[in-house]
Design a protein that fits this description.
This protein is of the alpha+beta class and 247 residues long. 71% of the residues lie in helices and 12% in strands.
């Protein structure tokens, strides 16, 4: 191999290394400048908003409120067995004489008067089942209330984990989306150069076709990454319950 050929190969290798470094630097600068995590709302804020908007957590709140009320009702259930009755009547009534009221057995006379009468009475009835089951009913209601509370705590933990995963997944997919776009731009430049080289006869049709296919594949990958990015964004928005605005 003569010196001229060696010199030419060295130039090509240096150019390739420089080109590769420039692409790497371009991608790194682009990722830093387009870091979506710097434009998204803070993760803690998204978690708090999701807790406020979550229908599942609202369900557990309502369920806990219901069973907490059942505890109070169970404690007061014995009051159902107490009856208070009152009556009112107006008319002519036969009344005992003063002698009869005093206990005179010889007096048999009654006298009639027109008057109003009020009656008030109270009664209590405590079935044995009410006494025996009262404590158990209260315990059952408390257990259901506690279950709703613990279910909510677990649902909050699940929600936090889901948002963290979706948040990080969105950032990862956005990075891949940006890299795919950078690859497309790189292949577009190569395609323009390949078209000139093909026109000038520097490359054959096979090489030109191969470069065009690589560009088409890069575009296809870019479109797939864009679709995945939109899906990831909508998934996070659906979990949080708001439309995410980029700052």
């Amino acid at each position: 191999m003569n010196k001229r050929i060696q010199f030419t190969l060295a130039i090509v290798m240096i150019a390739g290394i420089s080109y590769g470094q420039s692409i790497t630097d371009f991608v790194n600068r682009g990722l830093k400048q387009n870091d979506i995590s710097q434009r998204l709302p803070p993760l803690d804020s998204l978690i708090e908003i999701a807790k406020q908007n979550s229908p599942r957590l609202k369900f557990f709140d309502a369920d806990y409120e219901y069973w907490d009320g059942q505890v109070t009702l169970s404690k007061r259930a014995w009051l159902r067995n107490i009856n208070l009755e009152a009556g009112y009547g107006y008319g002519i009534y036969d009344n005992l004489s003063n002698q009869q009221i005093a206990g005179d057995p010889g007096s048999q006379a009654l006298f009639s008067t027109e008057q109003s009468r009020y009656t008030v009475g109270a009664s209590i009835k405590l079935p044995l089942s009410t006494i025996i089951n009262r404590k158990r009913e209260i315990k059952n209601a408390k257990a259901e209330a506690d279950k709703s509370k613990y279910q909510k705590e677990f649902a909050v933990w699940e929600l936090e984990q889901l948002i963290v995963n979706q948040y990080n997944n969105l950032i990862k997919i956005h990075r891949l989306f940006f890299i795919s776009n950078s690859i497309v731009e790189t292949y577009k430049v190569q395609s323009i150069r390949a078209e000139k080289d093909f026109t000038n006869g520097a490359i054959n049709v096979t090489e030109y076709t191969r470069l065009q296919q690589m560009l088409n594949q890069a575009i296809s990958s870019f479109e797939s990454q864009r679709a995945e990015f939109l899906i990831a964004l909508k998934a996070l928005e659906g979990t949080v319950g708001i439309e995410i605005q980029f700052e």
